[in-house]
């Protein structure tokens, strides 16, 4: 019976970034790493959804401002907030696709080459679907051919 609490403890413990980086390459995308990234992606998803709700509330609070300069400032702030939410909407789609990739066992592997994307890159960009080299090739093609 002593092993059950230890197993439960291991399942509930999420490693730090340093612990992830210290893991050997042979353990790439093991359950611990997948759990870490699933948790990080879920937190990001929740943050984006919370921001969207806050923006909706802010936009509902219409204010009558007689001064045209003040009104213009408020409209510009709203426009900026909407552009930010639009970027987050696109990010939300990528976050949800990444969670689906975890579920299907494809997360952490380059869509183009099938090689590992790498823990450092996934820590920097948890929604990455290409290895650094494949991403650089894609950006070079876009630059050269306007792809």
Keywords:
Four Helix Bundle (Hemerythrin (Met), subunit A); 147 residues; disordered N terminus; mainly alpha
Q: What would your notes on this structure say?
A:
The protein has about 150 residues and is an all-alpha fold. The protein has 2 domains: about 30-105, DksA, coiled-coil domain (Four Helix Bundle (Hemerythrin (Met), subunit A), Up-down Bundle), CATH 1.20.120.910; about 110-145, no CATH class. It is built from 6 helices and no strands. The protein has helices at about 5-10, 15-20, 30-60, 70-105, 120-125, 130-145. Helix 3 (about 30-60) runs antiparallel to helix 4 (about 70-105). The chain starts with a helix and ends with a helix.
Question: Outline of this structure?
Answer:
70% of the residues lie in helices and 0% in strands. With 147 residues, the chain is mainly alpha-helical. The radius of gyration is 21 Å and the shape is elongated.
